[in-house]
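EI: anyone free to look at a 419-residue chain?
SC: sure, send it
EI:
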Amino acid sequence: MSNTNTISISFSNRSLKGEAPLPASKSISNRVLIIRALSGASFRIDNLSDAQDTVTMNQILKGFSNGQTEFNVGHAGTTFRFLTAFLAIKKGRQILTGSARMLQRPIGPLVDALRQIGANIRYLGEEGYPPLQIDSPQFTDNQTVSIFAGMSSQFLSALLLIGPYLPKGLILKPEGKMVSSSYLQMTMDLMQEFGAKIELTGKVISVQAGKYLAKDFEVESDWSAASYFFGMAAGVEEVDLLLPKLRKNSLQGDQAMVDLAAKFGIGSRYTEAGVQLYKDASLEEDILDIDFLEFPDLAQTVMVMVALTGKTGFFTGLETLKIKETDRILALQTELKKVGVYFTQLPQKFSPQSGKTFYTINGKLDLSQTPTFSTYEDHRMAMAFAILATKGRINIKNPGVVKKSFPGFWDVLGLLSRG
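SC: here you go
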């Protein structure tokens, strides 16, 4: 039962069976859309994501090709970052802006890097943040760009994607500890799929000047979206669930969910149709030790699974969660507290390894009073907390936020929860 502002959900059975249709990967879709736009060709992209981020990206790229000069990406962070680099090598004056939250998300490291190669970008508000005015570039002889890699891998991916279209190519030198490097690898794999010449020497990435080749492409299903069903599998007694069109040889780092879910006793079997989930208690671990540096988008899912199962452990690699669609650390702490669970940062002296910030979870899940969870305009908050419906009735505010990445999520969940 739901209205436009709140949805109320619970599972009427203790099993998870059947099939959960998944959206296409928006991460892959967004990169291929940029590649197609840069190529100037009109090749076919099959199974393109219907996520709001991808729809926005597609609309803006079409608008640009039709002469539009002002663009609003809404909440779409990937779209903003990729378009900043894309527009930076185009002629004319473009204005790029977004939602109120987007104007609070830093873009400075990417702008600084683009300026090193001659981009002409001006901040229209606070220094280091959107909105941006982007004018025709004045390319320099410099092809070497240094950029801080510890804030967002999307800054690096945005630079790499335009690399073939720079006059002398690009030599990218990441500085500091890399975050979400699996997404950077996805970018390089896709670029090479479309003919880009890339060399990796240590941490330095070299891209030859050239162009992308036109070829039809099919997008695989989204592992991030699949993670919520792995989470639900941890909350029921019987599991026989197919997650279709997931590939064993995936480009997506969030395929790590297979190994993470095993710690909760969830087995995964690859088939021609996708991935089949089942229960396997022999895989389960009592105390967890997880570093999310390579797959931060799985953090909310796993934290809710920990709350659901009463496990304990140490969790690190969560630095980028504070600058996502919301401050996801604070959001998790606030919402988990509603059901008697506490997500706490450990004092540095108690951290198992020096130099890392660790968090832990304690408390016992209490759904005796139906909780109402806020979503903070963050699609992953809504879908991660939906996992708790396997243990009792819950309410989720503003359920429509899921359209950012998984528009059909509530429909799929409705079918599964009724058995």
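EI: The mean pLDDT is 94.
SC: 👍
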